[in-house]
Amino acid sequence: MTLSRRHAYHVHVNMDDSPAAIPLSAGVIKRPTLLADGRELIYFDDADTTLGPVRGVDARVLDPRPETATMRQDILTGDWITFATKRQNRVMMPGADADPLAPQTASNPSEVPSMYDVAVFENRSPSFGPALAEAVGGAPSAPNAPRGLDDLAALGLGRTRTSVGRCEVVCFSPEHAGSFGTQSVTRARTVIEAWADRTAALSALPGIEQVFPFENRGEAIGVTLPHPHGQIYAYPYVTPRTARLLDSIDRTSPDLFARVLEFELASERVVLRGEHWTAFVPFAAGWPLEVQLMPHRHVPDFAALNDAERDELAPLYLRLLRGVDALYETPTPYIAAWHQAPVHVGRDSVRLRLELTSPRRAADKLKFLAGSEAAMSAWTAEILPEETADRLRTAIDTVTS
């Protein structure tokens, strides 16, 4: 049987292929390697891993990666919209035998050649990249790449730029189904270490202005793969949401996050508190379920967290997610968005925080953004944040670990 170039595949394990072992915090080991088309793949081994150092070689024959997408500016808002048309063809809810995030087998030529604990790799059809720009002030390496924040802030009709950047997939487990909340504390700690490592690495790439780790969970959110995973986007601009935040900080004070945390700690909206982290339903929550998780110390991103903060985050975040799932008899769809400070601005004022939102307003009902919210960003909330906090505290209390 003759296979096409797209589907040609055979299993090949080079027993001499032992990626370099780089020790990280908490006993996690980082092992970087490459996929068949040159994309970066990084294994992050648990502190108590049962895996050996040898990893299989990706022997697939792959089509060339698509060209980097193009951004167009909306002159009415200043927002940049990236047009990644190749993403139209991505896989939709495959079965376990065709899971592209599972370890490769003879019948499943997936994206990860070997068994793993946590694996991070460049998305094959990204919204941003693979091209990168040179550092601000240097000549762009990609045609029509952004030339810094001032260039991106300028307004004009018909403005385009190349969507330089990087998009990565973070596999939380080799299992076919699950989410971050279904992982062990040890595995959660490994993922946190991976987020910190990738935040530092992506922030150092030319042309990157903001790094965003996130997890989409549930078909109601639009998830296309049931495999437990998240993503990391490295943007060539400061996102609109963060730009509005920076404006709020300019109009109030540089210690805005410290003031917000103090305000929430004195309220009945706190749902979970540790030595280094507090989770609360925010005062003006717009979604039926909305929770923020914030470190007590000012840190701009995951890379800046110390070991004690990372260690506490693993079990505390798991307890929060399991509490969210305990609200109803079936798992709750959500977006878990880890907001981090931009790479070059706001480092001393924008604090790392989780913003978890869900459209689920009852066991069998979802909130859809209709005219006022979708068109005008003028929100109407049906549930008081204090009521949500009370229900979530009760649900968290039922979670044993």
Automatic annotation (TrEMBL):
Pathway: Carbohydrate metabolism; galactose metabolism. Residues 266-393 form the Galactose-1-phosphate uridyl transferase C-terminal domain. One of its GO terms (biological process) is galactose catabolic process via UDP-galactose, Leloir pathway. InterPro entries: GalP_UDPtransf1, GalP_UDPtransf1_His-AS, GalP_Utransf_C, GalP_Utransf_N, HIT-like_sf. The active site is at H229. The keyword Metal-binding applies. Its EC number is 2.7.7.12. This is Galactose-1-phosphate uridylyltransferase. The gene is galT. Keywords: Carbohydrate metabolism, Galactose metabolism, Metal-binding, Nucleotidyltransferase, Transferase, Zinc. One of its GO terms (molecular function) is zinc ion binding.
